[in-house]
């Protein structure tokens, strides 16, 4: 065989480089794009009436006795029958009645089943640690606009997030202590941030779109906040500018008030109840509230992500109503330190009252250049956990992540039809 002509070698080299660059670009782009999941189907088997709750439980500032990531890795993976029992649920209605619904799960595959986690690390008390990194969103120009307008206050003292025009996602412990429903749940209400006064139609609109004139300088503040959320997403320029503007976000220029709406019904997975899921109780610290009337604000969709730590910066965001800043919405972001299929350990500064907040990230929609925020977890709060299963208690901040199976259940609660919940 004779020598290969030089032009052929050059052509092959160029093609190899082009293919390599294209592959790398696609790989990087995938990091910034919402993955598409085929989720299992959750279907109702039977609903039976139960006796009315006592509504005698009291809110807890800190949860204890929770089995954390390291503790859970000692437990056997739940079977399909176990998962169906954990995902069966109770519904409490505004008249005080209660039902129990058993469910069946179809199309479950190995990816959606909780896997054992081998991570282990030491933690510190992180309710607040060092410099307080939270931002008070007191200006009505922002607190009543998307994405902050999706955050709501629960009358039991927690926070929540709108995931449909009439449904709020929150933490189960904000409603139930594992044994009984909290005092006040029978008359449960949800507070939506509302501007105290409106001039013309400027305060209205969905998804944060103002129809009136913008306040002078408002555009710059919104862009600065976007830059905070985009850190680690390929836009690191202007980080210094973002820091300069942070202090101005706390200026009170027309503090909003709450418009309260009654809750029609509440749904909680059986896995949250004492003695049902044993060490997996923390995995089921979520609930859905259906409102009697839909507020005229936008909501945030649910999303599923295989790993937060593998995302650029591994950063999450959430806003809630921390107790130490009454009446104000508090926003924060931080990186996830450890994760399992169902739990996220993170060091976001938070105070009681922020429990139940929707944890979200921002990625591109598949095939589009448009960025979209989605809820990927529920902030459970500051908890004391049995880390290694030896009874030693340690504290940390935790969020319950949305898995494909939880997505299927929550979507079924919201739509009442599992056929609308096949793809996340």
From TrEMBL:
Residue ranges of region Disordered? Answer: 193-258
Example GO biological process term? proteolysis
Task: Provide ranges: composition bias, Basic and acidic residues.
Answer: 219-238
InterPro entries (alphabetical): Glutamyl_endopeptidase, Peptidase_S1_PA, Peptidase_S1_PA_chymotrypsin, Trypsin_dom, TRYPSIN_HIS
Please state where this protein is localized.
Answer: Secreted
Taxonomically, the superkingdom here is Eukaryota
Report biased composition (Basic residues) as residue ranges: 196-218, 239-248
Signal peptide, first to last residue:
1-20
In this protein, which residues make up the domain named Peptidase S1?
Answer: 141-185
Q: Which GO terms describe its cellular component?
A: extracellular region
* Keywords recorded for this protein, A-Z: Glycoprotein, Secreted, Serine protease homolog, Signal
| GO molecular function ontology, one term from the record | serine-type endopeptidase activity
- Family label: Belongs to the peptidase S1 family.
- The protein, known as: Inactive serine protease 35
């Amino acid at each position: 065989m004779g020598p290969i002509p030089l032009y052929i070698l050059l052509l092959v080299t160029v093609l190899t480089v082009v293919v390599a660059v294209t592959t790398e670009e696609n790989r990087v782009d995938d990091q910034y794009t919402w993955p598409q999941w085929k989720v299992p189907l959750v279907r109702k088997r039977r609903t039976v009436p139960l006796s009315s709750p006592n509504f005698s439980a009291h809110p807890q500032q800190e949860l204890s006795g929770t089995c954390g990531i390291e503790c859970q890795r000692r437990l056997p993976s739940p079977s399909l029958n176990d998962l169906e029992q954990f995902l069966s649920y109770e519904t409490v209605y505004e008249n005080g009645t209660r039902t129990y619904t058993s469910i069946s799960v179809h199309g479950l595959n190995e990816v959606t089943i909780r896997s054992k986690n081998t991570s282990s690390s030491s933690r510190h008390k992180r309710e607040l640690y060092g410099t307080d990194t939270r931002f008070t969103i007191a200006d009505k120009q922002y607190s009543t606009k998307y994405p902050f307008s999706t955050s709501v206050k629960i009358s039991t003292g927690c926070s929540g997030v709108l995931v449909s025009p009439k449904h709020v996602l929150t933490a189960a412990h904000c409603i139930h202590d594992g044994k009984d429903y909290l005092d006040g749940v029978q008359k449960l209400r949800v507070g939506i941030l509302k501007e105290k006064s409106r001039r013309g139609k400027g305060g209205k609109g969905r998804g944060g779109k103002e129809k009136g004139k913008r306040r002078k300088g408002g555009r710059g503040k919104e862009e600065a906040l976007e830059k905070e959320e985009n850190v680690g997403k390929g836009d690191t320029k202007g980080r210094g500018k973002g820091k300069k503007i942070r202090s101005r976000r706390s200026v009170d220029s027309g503090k909003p008030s709450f418009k309260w709406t009654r809750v029609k019904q509440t749904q909680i997975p059986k896995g949250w109840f004492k003695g049902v899921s044993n060490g997996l109780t923390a995995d089921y610290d979520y609930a859905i509230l259906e409102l009697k009337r839909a507020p005229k604000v936008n909501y945030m969709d649910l999303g599923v992500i295989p790993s937060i730590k593998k995302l650029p910066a591994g950063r999450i965001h959430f806003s809630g109503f921390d107790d130490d800043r009454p009446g104000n919405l508090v926003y924060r972001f931080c990186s996830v330190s450890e994760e399992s299929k169902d739990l996220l350990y993170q060091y976001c500064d938070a105070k009681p009252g922020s429990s139940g907040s929707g944890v979200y990230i921002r990625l591109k929609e598949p095939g589009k250049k448009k960025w979209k925020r989605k809820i990927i977890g529920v902030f459970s709060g500051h908890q004391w956990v049995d880390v290694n299963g030896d009874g030693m208690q340690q504290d940390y901040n935790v969020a319950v992540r949305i898995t494909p199976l939880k997505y299927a259940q929550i979507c079924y609660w919201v739509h009442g039809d599992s056929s609308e919940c096949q793809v996340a």
